[in-house]
Amino acid sequence: MVYVGIPKGQANQEEEVLKTIQDGDSDELTIKRFTESREKPGALWHIYAAKDTEKIREFLKKVAEEQGQENPVDHDPIHDQSWYLDRSLRKRLHQEYGVQGWAIVQFLGDVVFIPAGAPHQARTRDPVHNLYSCIKVAEDFVSPEHVKHCFWLTQEFRYLSHTHTNHEDKLQVKNVIYHAVKDAVGILRANESSLSRP
C-alpha cells in the first residue's frame, strides 16, 4: 500500500472507517493500529484457504439462486468477482459450510501476500463501506510450490465464456514451466564437467 489519502473536513469519516473495520471481523490489534497508533488504513481484505474454493463457489451459487439470479455454465461466481461477502454472508458461509477466512486491514506501507488460488476480496472504496482512498501496487508470480495449483486455475479459466475477462491465460504457467526447465538444463550443461568429477 503505497498511498492512503485522508480527506479533510468530512465529519464522522473516522467513525465510518472504524465501523467498517469492526464489521469486517478484524481483530483487536488491528483496531488498535487505527484507533491508538493512528495508522492509515487503505483496504480491508478477506482471504480464504484455497482448499475451500469449491465450498465458496457452491455457497455463492446457492445464494444467487435464492435471489433469483441465473448461474450460467460459462460463468463462475468467484472469477466473475460479482459478489462481496458482507458480514451476514460470511457468517452464513461459516455456519453452513464451515468456511472461515481471515480479515486483514492493509495499512499504508503494508504488504498482503495472497497464496495461489486463495479466494479473496478487498473492500477498498465504494458507496456503502468507505475506507480511505488508496493506491496499491500488485505483483503476481508463480512459485515452484504452487505450479500445480496455478495450472489447475488456468484450466478453470478455459471454461469461462470467451468474453470473460479471466478467459485468457494470464498466468502463462506452461511458459513458466518451459523457461524454468530450459534454464535448469542450461545450468546443468554449463556445469556438466564439474558435476562428473568425484
Describe the protein:
This protein has 7 helices and 5 strands. The N and C termini lie far apart (51 Å). With 198 residues, it is an alpha+beta fold. The protein has 2 domains: 3-139, Cupin (Jelly Rolls), CATH 2.60.120.650; 142-197, no CATH class. The longest helix is centred in the last third of the chain and has 18 residues, at 173-190. The strands form 2 sheets. The chain has a 3-stranded antiparallel sheet, covered by helices on one side. It has a two-stranded antiparallel sheet with strand order 1-5. The protein is globular, with a radius of gyration of 21 Å.
Number of strands: 5
Low-confidence stretches: 125-130
Largest sheet: 3 strands, antiparallel
Q: In angstroms, what is the radius of gyration?
A: 21 Å
In CATH terms, what is the architecture of the largest domain?
A: Sandwich
Classify the fold: give the CATH topology of the largest domain.
Jelly Rolls
Strand and helix layout:
Elements: E1 3-5, H1 13-23, H2 28-35, E2 41-47, H3 53-66, H4 87-97, E3 102-107, E4 120-123, E5 133-135, H5 147-158, H6 173-190, H7 192-195
Antiparallel strand pairs: 1-5, 2-3, 2-4
